[in-house]
Amino acid sequence: MKANKMKEMTSQELSEKMNELKNELFNLRFQLATGQLDNPMKIKAIKKDIARVNTVLRQKEIQA
Question: Distance (Å, rounded) from C-alpha 63 to C-alpha 47?
């Protein structure tokens, strides 16, 4: 997800998105440990999305 789309979201929606991404990261790590993960680059992409959400949340916090 692009940062531009995240900036349009409310803080509540961003928090929900953060929870979804963390759950997905947990599941991907579990699949990696059991050898079922097809594309390990998904983990890197999810981590970047989490960082983007954190950045946008922090920007909104500073503006408020």
Answer: 25
**φ/ψ (deg, to 5) at 28:** -65, -40
Consecutive H or E run containing 35? none
| Domain boundaries along the sequence of the chain | 3-63
| 50 neighbors 18 (Cβ within 8 angstroms) | yes
The per-residue pLDDT for range 5-42, each reduced to its tens digit, is 888 899 999 999 999 999 999 999 999 999 999 999 99
3-63, CATH topology level: Helix Hairpins (1.10.287)
